[in-house]
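Why should sequence recovery work at all? Because a backbone constrains its sequence more than one might expect. Tight turns favour small or flexible residues, buried strands favour hydrophobic ones, and helices have their own preferences. The token representation captures these environments compactly. In the example below, the structure is given first.
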């Protein structure tokens, strides 16, 4: 996807991926990450997800990466947190209290800029990227986070039924992308009653990735 694709989505408010509530798989399985109080959690391609609100409410420090400045402005406004904005190379850093979001291309965010993170939470990030980009993304995320444990939430459906994003990512692909560097454990798979794009059968899965 070109950056323009996502900028247009946010400008037109075509954000069906945005959930009104915290993701149930995050609620059910965050404990698998073994986070200590105040742990620093990285949320790639974070949008303005309610999951960020929830992680902050648990007392965690949250670091996001998001292409759309509009999304990030909305996120800070919805949290009633006026951000300090500074430059970090090609990225902008929005910061307030325990929330930091790097605005720009995640591939420009390296470990030195991101800093130490205790865990990664990926919901609708890997599946937002086309196949050719997913291999690069998985390697980049592993390097930037120094293989921090990851709670990964994917979607899987018959790819002949719809064109992504979101793209179908099955367990086989998760293992291909992450299996060399991480132990991959499937934790839960559930059918989403609302269906993909409101019609097609779709399953949502949670995986726990821990460094080998
Ligand atoms: C499907 S949305 C998911 C947002 C969020 N994770 C959620 O659950 O609501 C994917 C997000 O990734 C952002 N994005 C796409 N490509 C990106 C990139 N290369 N770097 C940073 N963010 C990107 C988009 O702007 C969009 O907000």
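From this structural description, the recovered sequence reads:
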């Amino acid at each position: 996807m070109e950056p323009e694709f996502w900028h247009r989505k946010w400008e037109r408010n075509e954000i069906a991926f945005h959930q009104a509530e915290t993701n149930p798989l995050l609620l059910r399985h965050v404990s698998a990450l073994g986070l200590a109080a105040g742990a620093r959690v990285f949320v790639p391609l974070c949008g303005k997800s309610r999951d960020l609100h929830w992680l902050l409410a648990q007392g965690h420090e949250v670091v996001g990466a998001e292409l759309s400045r509009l999304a990030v402005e909305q996120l800070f406004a919805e949290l009633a947190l006026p951000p300090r904005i500074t430059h970090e190379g090609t990225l902008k850093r929005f910061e307030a209290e325990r929330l930091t979001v790097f605005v720009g291309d995640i591939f420009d965010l390296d470990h030195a800029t991101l800093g130490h993170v205790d865990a990664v939470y990926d919901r609708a990030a890997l599946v937002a990227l086309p196949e050719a980009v997913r291999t690069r993304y998985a390697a980049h995320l592993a390097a930037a986070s120094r293989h921090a444990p990851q709670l990964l939430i994917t979607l899987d459906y018959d790819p002949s039924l719809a064109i992504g994003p979101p793209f179908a990512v099955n367990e086989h692909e998760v293992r291909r992308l992450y299996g060399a560097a991480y132990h991959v454990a499937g934790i839960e798979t559930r059918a989403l009653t609302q269906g993909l794009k409101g019609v097609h059968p779709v399953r949502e899965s949670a995986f726990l990735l821990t460094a080998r």
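A few observations help interpret the result. The longest strand covers residues 182-191.
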